[in-house]
User: Fold this.
Amino acid sequence: MSDHATRLFIERGFEETAIADVAAASRVAKKTVTNCFARKEELALDHQLDHQEEFVAGLARTVAGRAAGESALVALRRECLAGVERQDPVIGFAGERFCRIIAESPTLTARLRDLHDQREEALARLLAEEAGVANDDFGAYAVAAQLGAAQRALFQRIMRLTLSGLPNADIVATVADDARRVFGLLEASFGDYAVRAGG
Assistant:
């Protein structure tokens, strides 16, 4: 279903494509589509974000799996650079056609912003839990917001460069430098925050 939906979104635009259109193209009942995907946005983002729950959990999962002696920032920088190298759709390498679908849809743009917000909240909860403070601890939320903003800015950078027509190899080189720079700027403040014991 999501393959048919993506084709329709590319051909017609996200806002102009109805769930009924996706059902007809997939040769299933409309209810079958809505049973699998509660919202039309989920159909559009399903492939690119490797299931939205996984996307939301991604930053927290990276930090939770960091090595002894590694800080949250170092773990996120390492994973971000690895994602750039492998051209991971989860960090923005979604291809020109898909990036255009998002850029031209206020609904998808808002949904993507909401998913980034949820990623930061999930990271904040993990940082608070590890520090033994309340779930709504402002310090944990402030750090998560800064670390998440770096990821969000790099995601948007990849999408803009993709839409400009730059080849992926050039995007990789540019964004790898950008990632090192942005995490370098944050390192003075957060380089020693949430270092896993044992290192």
Observations:
- The chain has a mean pLDDT of 92.
